[in-house]
Structures
1.
Amino acid sequence: MSVLQLSNVTKLYGSFVAVNNISFNVEKGKILSLLGPSGCGKTTTLRLISGFEVPNDGAVMFSGVDMKGRRPYERNVGLLFQDYALFPHMTVRENVAYGLKHRNFDKAKIPARVSEMLSLVKLKGFEDRRPGQLSGGQQQRVALARALAIYPEVVLLDEPLSALDAKLRQELRFELKEILSAVDATTIVVTHDQEEAMSLGDSVIVMSGGKIMQQGAPTDIYTNPKTRFVAEFIGRSNWFTGRLLPSSNGLAEFQSGSGLRMVVPVPDGSVNGTTFDVCVRPERIQINGIGQPSSLAPGNEMRGTIRDVAHLGADLHLVIEIPGGQLLTVTEKYVGQALEQSGQEVSVAFRPSDCIVVPSGS
Ligand SMILES: Nc1ncnc2c1ncn2[C@@H]1O[C@H](COP(=O)(O)OP(=O)(O)OP(=O)(O)O)[C@@H](O)[C@H]1O
Ligand SMILES: [Mg+2]
């Protein structure tokens, strides 16, 4: 049975639909990443689960039990807010003990539990400090220890790493994953960072305008987005817009508005009279010397001119102009090869199976 289940949950503020008929499950010990642009309803979804908001419609269930009518303190939820809101006048020890004291946890056992949580988040020795005497990353860990201390049935983390700089964020992302797995927490992590969502989540939900646009394993969402919105939200992409011509063998001929022809997989549903957008991820495009056979044949090949080469550590990011003037973004692994030069004529190639076809305007 799922530890957390939302069924057709809707939340209105006046006539504004903040959360629009969403349903999903989270299984025991799994992490679900909730991803989407600012204002799409992520925090509202967490507030509905924790009981700070009441749905206008639908149900929130914990291990099969309907939470209707239960106040926040009657739900076994460990919460970490968007700004992690530690109590500034309390010590680290008092902050972590807070939830335990307010939930009638056996008083004699509180010190041991606090100590256990502080070793989990690697903050032993910091017990008597106040939040103002800690770095951002340390405060974040105290907030996490506080959320996990109460043996929560469900853990809700709202942008847990957003207050941190990029390097610390990456380090803590890995630590956070380890800590959650150590306590087998059933977790929802809200983020608007797609890399974070994909690296933390066993599954990912992409939201927009209060609705779930797509849900799946991180790799599935990246390689098989159903709409342009999801494809653009998860990772970088190159786009062509055009029409599909009659097909065979599960493949179709695609003709772009600028006259490019390529072979693509046939999308689900009708292809007649509809415009499609084709997405090709930058790392799926191969660059060859002119006249050099493509290792991706039989595929899609076109001439191009390199307009920019940027060497970013392990990766090369190239901008290539193709016939019609469109600029493609291409990434290559940098393994010490001679760098392509701006102005160089090349041919670019990609497999039909590397093309993602979605309805235009989706
Ligand atoms: N109490 C409220 N009254 C009216 N509208 C609200 C209220 N709370 C949230 N909203 C609106 O509901 C929508 C969803 O808000 P929410 O806080 O869930 O967004 P979010 O996805 O968490 O965004 P962010 O990434 O910026 O945190 C927004 O348009 C917001 O303005
Ligand atoms: Mg929010």
2.
Amino acid sequence: MTQQSKYKMIYLDNAASTPTDSRVVEAMLPYFNTIYGNPSAIHPMGCHSSDALENARRQVAALINCHPEDIIFTSGGTEADNLALLGLTAASVTKGNHIITSQIEHHAILETCHHLEKKGIQITYLPVDRHGMVAPEAVRDAIRPDTVLVSVMAANNVIGTIQPITEIGAVCREKGVFFHTDAVQLVGHLPVDVEKSQIDLLSLSAHKFNGPKGVGALFARREVPLSPIIFGGGQEEALRSGTENVPGIVGLGMAAEIAGSEITSESARIHDLSLKLINGILNGIPGVRLNGHPENRLPNNINVSIPGIEGEYLTRELGKRGVCVSTGSACSSGTHEAPYVLLATGLERDLANCSIRLSLGKMSDEDSVRQTINILSDVCSRIRAQSVI
Ligand SMILES: Cc1ncc(COP(=O)(O)O)c(C=O)c1O
């Protein structure tokens, strides 16, 4: 028996991953052992699988308002980001070798950029303001004749700040530069329209909006030059070879359809709960600071610094009381580096190290919010009392 088991679990790490919706699981199940044909096969079992893929393509396309044929299924957000950056630069060698991104992107973008730098691609990492916002004017000023791509995330995974992607999209279109956005944290939580925001490429991931893990997609307009990064049987218009993860893709499609139909009510509900949680934390724990943008933030993401209480220690203590939160992004928790996103907003290292992220989701309710406020206040006052002794 684990220490947590005597408490009811309160899961507040939905920015790292969400539970798969039971309707999604139900939609996926037949594709494991009833409709199991390879979608490339031309017999009826294969055709059933390929029909399911095309249905999922339409469901995903409807969520972001694009043509279904512009959706490339991938193994998740990381692969979609890699395909966007590596694929576009490889296909644009004659046009230029400069990319613009921001200092607060997810590792899936930053590490790909570091790899590209070693190959001779020049990267401009734009700074952000104290709320974590990239200025569209800074994007305009950074565009050069050899710029082939601007990649700025739609919403940040650590602090939840939503970027002005429509304004950045307009700058890119005016300057004739392709615009990619890593929308992994935004898709399924807030509406996104690739036409309205003039987005040329967009990454999304199923497990961030109640779909299964290990499946995602890259939206890429037909006119965007893209080379594959995985070679083989030529699936996904030869842009992503490998037998498609049919159950996963069906799950992604269903998650997209559900998110699309519930997005207005669910985002309002989560926003309301978040405000209660933020107010409860700010009023209940002396000295707390809310990180990120005060208004332009994801409804489900709360990042706070609690002076004098190290984030990782607090995360472990909360875990003992059954409350699951995180110290930074899921991929970097477990390491001891201060969250680079918070440092980029100008937050002092001490306060950056004293931060935790609470991210709400479908299972969050008034009761879990109330309990979290009580447990967090209690744990913080105990830690502070111990450190005074
Ligand atoms: C902003 C952002 N981009 C990309 C990823 C990677 O997505 P995946 O886990 O599907 O590879 C994540 C996951 O945390 C993310 O938050």
3.
Amino acid sequence: MDWSVGEYELTAAQLLPAAKILVDLAAPKPGEVVVDVGCGTGNAALLAAVTGAKVTGVDPARRLLEVARARAKDEGLDVTFVEGTGEAIPLDDGVANVVVSSFGVMFSPDVPAAVAELDRITATGGRILVTSFPPEGPMMKVMGAAIEELSRVLPPPPASNDRAEKPFGWHDEADVRTAFEPRGFEVTVTRHQLPMRATSVQAHLERLEKHPSAITGLQAVPDAKRTEVAGRIRRRMTEVLETVNEDPAAFLITSPFTIATIRRR
Ligand SMILES: C[S@@+](CC[C@H](N)C(=O)[O-])C[C@H]1O[C@@H](n2cnc3c(N)ncnc32)[C@H](O)[C@@H]1O
């Protein structure tokens, strides 16, 4: 999926409080090298740079890297942004005292490769902190509804019928331990809450419709059916958003998220 399409910036603004919790927990010291994997528009990278750390952000989406560079310039911060993925990080072995990934590496399609890369770039005594959304919670419920509507008209992803094992979960301490303990890391997973507000259900829905995954999903629908499917998704998402809304006068949902803290022993 191309994360450069649409207006991911709107979602990034909502995820900023989670990036703040992540960077506070990572607690980079001035002069430490921090790498933000899947940095997007730079939420965690910029917060880390404010602490005096030397920061590099890595992301596959070129447009988001441009936005991140512009934000760094506006804030007078010296941050390097480079193109790459969690499975192929274009940095040297052992460079990072701290690796953070704010809902970034959770999108890696090749978890063993991403685990190997995070291990490879982490220095002796270094730490890796990864945020992720567990499958439950209002935000995932809304996304699940949209995916269900899309799956009525799109063919199933290749090999999905053969997938007997449950997918790796960065929110799941047992999964993260299995991946990192044999590599000499200690793992803890903590749970946090992310409130997301809007002036109304409609305003939140409009923001979601500009998310890269919404645009990419609809682009995959045959032209003749796109308008009808978009309408069906909108109605279904509105229904679910109204059910999960915690603020009848406006819009509020509180979504759980996790931070896996992975320290080299
Ligand atoms: C939900 S956004 C999070 C962006 C940013 N960290 C934030 O907190 O706003 C997901 C990001 O992961 C990036 N991404 C997608 N595939 C990736 C991969 N294989 N490895 C690393 N990042 C990836 C996307 O380009 C996007 O910027």
4.
Amino acid sequence: MTIVYPDIKPWGRSFKEYVRMFNLTPDDLERKILGCGDGPASFNAEFTERGGNIISVDPVYFFSADQIRQRIHETYNYIIDQTRKNQDKFIWQEIGSVEELGRIRMSAMEKFLKDFSEGVMQKRYIPGELPFLPFKDKEFDLALCSHLLFLYTDNLSLEFHLKSIEELCRVSNEVRVFPLQDVNADRSSYVEPVINFLRTKNQDVKEIKVAYEFQKGGNTMLRIC
Ligand SMILES: C[S@@+](CC[C@H](N)C(=O)[O-])C[C@H]1O[C@@H](n2cnc3c(N)ncnc32)[C@H](O)[C@@H]1O
């Protein structure tokens, strides 16, 4: 079967998953980090608890915690259902079943929801959206973008990808994007055009293997400096 997402879904991963998706080292975790499209991930909440310096930006932060909770509940069954019908596209090793996946994601999203109001007051959750971010040039050391660019190849154009990655490079000294696959676990047709475009802009671009693989074959990130 084919996975179809008519729009971009709020779905949240944990700090532990971010560390592995982006090969984050102890030195990386000392840097000023931007999480772009973090949505209801618990990365910001958990990293802040560990003393990290992190700002997340996402259009879902225009809404209240109750509205975001409502949206998560509206989309939860759809995502779980699509995943169940397409189990062959994933590696069920660390996460053993669709039910366990649901529990792990909900636990991360609950952590986010608990932290959201305080994080808004502390300006750790900033409403905004690519391709234009409300930040100064090189305000961050490292920008991370998980499960937005490339994943939503069917929803977002190549032009959007080029502008968005240029914008991430404007606000951060280094940018990492994961995964490079679309929702059906196929390599996004945008990866090579994006790499070629960035090289014409004299950016150093590398595809790097990471210690995380849930979508089959989805174990590399793009690192741009
Ligand atoms: C699938 S979720 C991924 C959440 C998180 N990064 C993770 O990996 O757990 C995609 C997120 O991208 C956000 N998003 C959608 N359009 C965006 C845009 N133009 N700029 C930034 N974020 C966007 C959505 O609101 C949603 O929270």
